[in-house]
Design a protein that fits this description.
By secondary structure, the chain is of the alpha/beta class. Helix content is 58%, strand content 9%. It contains 35 helices and 21 strands. The protein has a six-stranded mixed β-sheet, sandwiched between helices. Strands 3-2-1-4-9 form a five-stranded mixed β-sheet. β2 and β3 form a beta hairpin. The chain is globular, with a radius of gyration of 31 Å.
Length: 871
C-alpha cells in the first residue's frame, strides 16, 4: 500500500483507540473509504507493535477490531455467506502449500487477515471428505498436504496467533482420525499437535489444560516411536515433552515430579542424539537440560546439598551444550560471516544460562569468562585468523587437518557413549590438537587479568532477562555488582526515551536535555557505588576500559556525571544547596581517571589491539578523506590543519574523494587514516553500513540495475552503496601499519543493537578487523565547528606528546574543549600555527558571536560524542 493510505489507516486506528467506548461505529461510518483488507493488515501489525511495548489492552482491542472488520468484509463480499468465503480461503491456502512453501501460505494469510478465524477449522473438517473423494488414489498425499498446511498456519508470525493455533489444532485432529492405520505418520501428527498445544500454553491460553493435552500427545507419539525404533523423531519428541513438563513445574503444577519427568525426558533425548551425532539438536536439548536443573535448584528450598547438586548439573549441561555449539561453529565456512552472526544470536541463550548458573554457584571468574566470550565472537575469530595467517585465509593443509580432527573427535565421542567405563583421554588429546591448529583461542580469566597493569581497571556490563551485571576487573581482583529488576526496567525506559528523542527529525530537545539525561543514567547504573568500591580496593587506578553490552554501546558512558572523589586527588569542590546541606558537584566519569577512559568490544579484542600497538610506533604518514559531500564547512579547516602535522600525507578532497580513487597500497602504508565524511548505519543489513563518499548521493529515480544498492536518505535522496565505502569494503582493507583510524563526522560509531548476540557490528569494527588497534568515532551527529576545533587539538596533542595513548589524548582534548571560554578559543586560534590565516578569520568571525567568558562547548553534546575503541 502507498504511504499516504498507510498514514490514513494509522490515523483512523489512533482515533479508534482514543474514542469513548461505543463511538466506534460512528467513526467507521465517517471513514468507510478506509474499511478494507488493508486496514485489517495495519491493525494486526499495530497490535503486534503494541504487544511488544507492553500495551496489552490496546493490542487486544485492535485484534478484535481486525477480526470484526474482516468478518464484515467477508460477509459483504459474498452477500453475507461467510462460509463460502472461508472455503475459498482454505482452498487458496492448500494451493499455496502445494505449489510453494510456508512463506507462500503466510503471504495468502497476510492478504486475508480477517479470515483467520476459528471457524476456518470447521471448514477444514467439512472439506476433508470432498478432498478425499476428488483424489481417491492420493489419500495419503491429501492428508499430508492438509497437515503441512496446518503447520504453516500454526507458524504464522504476523498476528492472529491464538486464532491460527486453534485452526491448526482442529486440522491436526482431523488428520489424526485418518491416520489410525499409519502409526509412523500418526506419531508425526501427534508431535505437531503437542507443539500447538504447548505454544497455546506458553501464550497463556488455558495453560493448565493445554499443557496436559500437549503432554498426552507427546507421550502417545513417543510410545509409537519407541515401538517403531524411530530414534531421531523420538529424540525430538522427548525434548518437546521435557519442555512441557518443565513449563508445568515452573507454573507450580506438581513442580518436583514434573521436573524429574522433564529431566528424564531430556536425558533420554540427549542420549539418543549423542549416539546419532545430532550436534545441533543435542545442543538445544542440553540447553533445556541446563534450565531444568536450574529450576530444580530453585525448588530445593533449604537443602543446600540438593541445590548445589542441581546447579552443578546445570553447569555441566550448559558446558556440554557450549562444546556442541563450538563444534557447530567450526563447521561453518570461514567466508560465511552473516550466517555465523545469525548462529551466534540463535545460541546466545546458552551463554546467558551458563552465566546465570555461574553466578548462583559463586563462580564469578567463570561468569566473566563466558560473558566476555559471548561478545564480538566473529570479530575476535576473524582478527585471530588474520593475525595468524597472511590474508586471513587458513592454508589448505591445515584446513584439511582440522577437518580430519573434527571427524576423529566425532567418532571418539560416539565410542565413549557406547563404552561402559569410558576413558576420555584420547578424545581430550584430539581436542587439544585441534585447538593448537585453530587461530581462535578462548581467553581465560588469568589472561584477562594479564591485560591489566597496576593502574588500569575494566568495567564490563552484561544484560540478562531480569537484571544487568557490572563486573569490575583489576590485575588483582574481580568484583560483581548485580542490579535489581527495577534498575533494568529504568535502564530500558531511559534508553528508549533517549533513542526516540534522538531519532526525532528535529532533535533539539534531545540536544538541550542531554546533560540532564546523562545525570539520570549514572544512578540507574549505580556508578557512584561501583566506582567507590573500585577506589577503595584499587586506589592507584588511573585508567578505565569500558566494555558495554548491547544498547549500552550507543551511550557516552565516559561522560556520565559522577558524585565521587577519586583517591588520586581529583578535586571536586563542595557545593551547598539552598538549605545549607553540603553536596558534591558531579564530574564526568573520565575526569576520575588521569590516563583516560577507553572502550573495547571485549577483552580478547583488547588483547589483540595491545599486541598491534606495540608493533606500530611510527605516526608520520596520513591518509585522509576531506568533506566529499561538501556540506561540512569547517571540515575544510580541520583536514587542512591536520595534514600539516604529518611528514607525508595523501588527501582526497571533495569530488576527488571517490571510492575508485582510494589506493589500497597508500592506505596500507598509512600510520593514520582520517575520514571526515558522514557515516550511515543500516539496521536492516549491517554490512551495508557505509562511509559516504563523493558522488554517492543523488535524487530519484534510481537506475534499475540493482535496487538493493540504493538506500533512502533524508530529503528524498538516495544513497548508491556502490559508490560508498561500505562495512563490507572496510573488512577487506589491510591496515597493517595503521596506529589510528579517526571517523570524525556524524554517527560513525553507531553499532547494531538489534542483535542479542552483541556481535559489535558497525564501522569501527571494520577498521579494527582491517588492522587498526585504535578507532575514534562518534555516537551522534556532531557539530561542524566544535568537531574541527576538537580534531585539530587532538592531533596536535598526539604529535606533541608521542608517548600519550589515543585514549589519554582524547580525554585531554575533551577536557580542554568543554572548559575553554570563547576567549580561550580565540587565543588558541591566534596561536595555532597549523591553521591558515584565512581559516583563522573564518573561525574568529563565528566565535565572535558569543560573549568572551562563555564556555561555548561545555555541553556534552559538543565533546562527549567522541570515543576511543581499542588500546
Amino acid at each position: 500500500m502507498d504511504e499516504q493510505r498507510s498514514q490514513a489507516y494509522l490515523s483512523l486506528i489512533q482515533e479508534l483507540l482514543e474514542c469513548p467506548n461505543g463511538e466506534e461505529p460512528q467513526i467507521f461510518n465517517r471513514h468507510l473509504e478506509l474499511v478494507d483488507e488493508g486496514f485489517v493488515q495495519v491493525c494486526e501489525l499495530e497490535a503486534a507493535q503494541l504487544q511488544e511495548e507492553g500495551q496489552e489492552d490496546d493490542a487486544q482491542f485492535l485484534r478484535d477490531l481486525a477480526q470484526q472488520v474482516g468478518a464484515f468484509l467477508a460477509r459483504r463480499g459474498t452477500g453475507g455467506n461467510q462460509q463460502e468465503v472461508l472455503q475459498q480461503f482454505w482452498l487458496q491456502l492448500l494451493q499455496a502449500e502445494n505449489e510453494g512453501d510456508t512463506a507462500a501460505v503466510h503471504q495468502v494469510m497476510r492478504q486475508n487477515m480477517g479470515l483467520i478465524v476459528p471457524a476456518l477449522g470447521d471448514i477444514i473438517a467439512q472439506s476433508m471428505p470432498g478432498l478425499l473423494v476428488q483424489n481417491p488414489d492420493q489419500a495419503q498425499g491429501v492428508v499430508g498436504l492438509v497437515e503441512n498446511t496446518c503447520t504453516s498456519i500454526r507458524l504464522f508470525p504476523y498476528g492472529r496467533y491464538g486464532e491460527a493455533l486453534e485452526i491448526a489444532i482442529r486440522g491436526y485432529g482431523v488428520v489424526l482420525e485418518l491416520r489410525a492405520d499409519n502409526p509412523e505418520k500418526r506419531a508425526q501428527t501427534l508431535n505437531n499437535l503437542g507443539n500447538a498445544r504447548l505454544t497455546q500454553a506458553e501464550m497463556g491460553i488455558n495453560p493448565s489444560a493445554n499443557l496436559e493435552s500437549a503432554i498426552a500427545a507427546y507421550d502417545e507419539a513417543a510410545g509409537i516411536m519407541r515401538r517403531l525404533e524411530l530414534d531421531k523423531d523420538l529424540s525430538s519428541t522427548l525434548n518437546n515433552l521435557g519442555i512441557a513438563r518443565r513449563t508445568q513445574a515452573e507454573m507450580g503444577i506438581n513442580p518436583a515430579a514434573n521436573l524429574e519427568s522433564a529431566i528424564a525426558a531430556y536425558d533420554e533425548s540427549a542420549g539418543i542424539m549423542r549416539g546419532l551425532g545430532l550436534a545441533r539438536d543435542l545442543a538445544g536439548t542440553l540447553n533445556n537440560f541446563g534450565f531444568a536443573y536450574q529450576t530444580q535448584s530453585r525448588l530445593a528450598g533449604n537443602s543446600s546439598s540438593q541445590k548445589q547438586q542441581a546447579l552443578e548439573n546445570a553447569y555441566h549441561s550448559f558446558q556440554e551444550a557450549l562444546d556442541q555449539v563450538e563444534y557447530l561453529r567450526g563447521e561453518i565456512g570461514a567466508d560465511s560471516e552473516g550466517y555465523k552472526r545469525n548462529f551466534n544470536e540463535e545460541w546466545n541463550g546458552v551463554y546467558r544460562g551458563m552465566v546465570e548458573v555461574c553466578l548462583e554457584l559463586g563462580r564469578y571468574q567463570d561468569a566473566i569468562e563466558y560473558v566476555d566470550r559471548s561478545k564480538a565472537r566473529n570479530l575476535v575469530e576473524l582478527i585471530a585468523t588474520r593475525d595468524a595467517y597472511p590474508g586471513g585465509v587458513i592454508p589448505e593443509p591445515i584446513r584439511q587437518q582440522l577437518q580430519q580432527l573434527k571427524i576423529a573427535i566425532a567418532q571418539a565421542e560416539r565410542r565413549l557413549q557406547e563404552e561402559t567405563n569410558p576413558d576420555p583421554t584420547h578424545l581430550n588429546q584430539l581436542r587439544q590438537q585441534k585447538q593448537k591448529l585453530e587461530p581462535y583461542k578462548p581467553l581465560h580469566f588469568q589472561a584477562m587479568q594479564a591485560l591489566l597493569d597496576e593502574e588500569t581497571a575494566i568495567l564490563e556490563w552484561y544484560i540478562l532477562g531480569d537484571k544487568f551485571l557490572t563486573f569490575t576487573l583489576t590485575a588483582e581482583s574481580l568484583n560483581l555488582w548485580t542490579s535489581s529488576e527495577e534498575d533494568l526496567d529504568k535502564l530500558i525506559d531511559w534508553g528508549n526515551a533517549y533513542l526516540r528523542d534522538y531519532r526525532n527529525r528535529d532533535n533539539r530537545q534531545w540536544r538541550n536535555t542531554l546533560a540532564d539525561r546523562l545525570e539520570q543514567l549514572a544512578p540507574i547504573l549505580h556508578l557512584d557505588e561501583i566506582l567507590q568500591n573500585l577506589f577503595n580496593n584499587f586506589p592507584n587506578c588511573k585508567k578505565l576500559i569500558l566494555i558495554p553490552h548491547r544498547y549500552l554501546h550507543l551511550f557516552p558512558l565516559h561522560a556520565l556525571p559522577i558524585h565521587h572523589t577519586n583517591n588520586q586527588g581529583a578535586s571536586i569542590a563542595p557545593l551547598h544547596d539552598p538549605v545549607g546541606a553540603q553536596c558534591l558537584r558531579p564530574i564526568p566519569l573520565q575526569d576520575l581517571f588521569p590516563k583516560g577512559v577507553g572502550y573495547a568490544p571485549n577483552c580478547q579484542v583488547l588483547q589483540q589491539a595491545k599486541k598491534r600497538i606495540n608493533q606500530r610506533p611510527d605516526f608520520n604518514r596520513l591518509f585522509a578523506i576531506q568533506n566529499p559531500t561538501q556540506d561540512l564547512h569547517f571540515t575544510e579547516m580541520e583536514v587542512e590543519a591536520i595534514q600539516s602535522l604529518f611528514i607525508r600525507h595523501q588527501v582526497l578532497k571533495h569530488d576527488q574523494a571517490e571510492k575508485a580513487a582510494i589506493d589500497v597500497e597508500t592506505l596500507k602504508n598509512a600510520h593514520c587514516a582520517h575520514f571526515s565524511c558522514p557515516g550511515y548505519f543500516n539496521f536492516e543489513d549491517a554490512l551495508k553500513s557505509a562511509l559516504i563518499l563523493a558522488k554517492s548521493e543523488f535524487t530519484p529515480p534510481p537506475p534499475t540495475d540493482d535496487p538493493s544498492r540504493y538506500l533512502p536518505l533524508r530529503d528524498n535522496k538516495l544513497l548508491d552503496l556502490e559508490k560508498c565505502l561500505t562495512l563490507e569494503d572496510i573488512l577487506r582493507l589491510d591496515l597493517t601499519n595503521c596506529r589510528l583510524v579517526t571517523l570524525s563526522a556524524c554517527e560513525t560509531g553507531i553499532t547494531d543493537i538489534t542483535s542479542t548476540s552483541d556481535e559489535y557490528i558497525g564501522l569501527p569494527r571494520g577498521f579494527i578487523l582491517a588492522g587498526s588497534p585504535n578507532v575514534v568515532s562518534t555516537l551522534w551527529a556532531v557539530n561542524d565547528l566544535s568537531t574541527a576545533i576538537f580534531m585539530i587539538q587532538f592531533y596536535q596533542t598526539l604529535q606533541q606528546q608521542p608517548e600519550l595513548s589515543v585514549v589519554l589524548a582524547l580525554r585531554q582534548t575533551q577536557t580542554w574543549l568543554r572548559s575553554a571560554t570563547v576567549q580561550d578559543l580565540l587565543d588558541w586560534v591566534d596561536s595555532c600555527a597549523v591553521i591558515s590565516p584565512e581559516r583563522r578569520e573564518q573561525m574568529k568571525d563565528t566565535l565572535g558571536w558569543y560573549e568572551p567568558d562563555v564556555k561555548r562547548f561545555s555541553s556534552p553534546y559538543f565533546w562527549a560524542a567522541f570515543c576511543a575503541i581499542g588500546q
